[in-house]
Design brief:
alpha/beta; 17% helix; globular
Amino acid sequence: MHFATADLVDQHERVISSCSTQFRNFGGHARFFGKVRTVRCHRDNALLKSLLSTPGDGAVLVVDGGGTLASALVGDIIAGLAVKNGWAGIVVHGAIRDSVAISTLPLGVKALGTNPLKSAKTGAGEADVTVHFGGCDFTPGQWLYSDEDGIVLLPQQA
């Protein structure tokens, strides 16, 4: 992948959004990009597991977990499903677990931190809705680009 988020900001200054949330890189790929899909869920990961079990076609799943670090929304099994089904990455506004195993996967994974406590599995939440954090609206269909400097959003592929 030959892009840098700083260069994208310089090239698309009028239409680009930059996420101010300071995420940590956990996946095997620090740089990743793809069309945005979203899930909003709070301490329950059944819906995002279901979505990552479908073909990703190179998309990035943005998970709004409300920023809580009280339990993990993604672990190695769910991240493995993303790899198996062709997702480019997962951005979790919340916590993950199994970080060592996730670091070996060919997948971009960003999250706020880790917690070994697992989430509930009731299926509560919403998919493919606009979610907001870090000063950005993450809308399905946008393009997300992520590297070591952060996350930017564009209305179309760069």
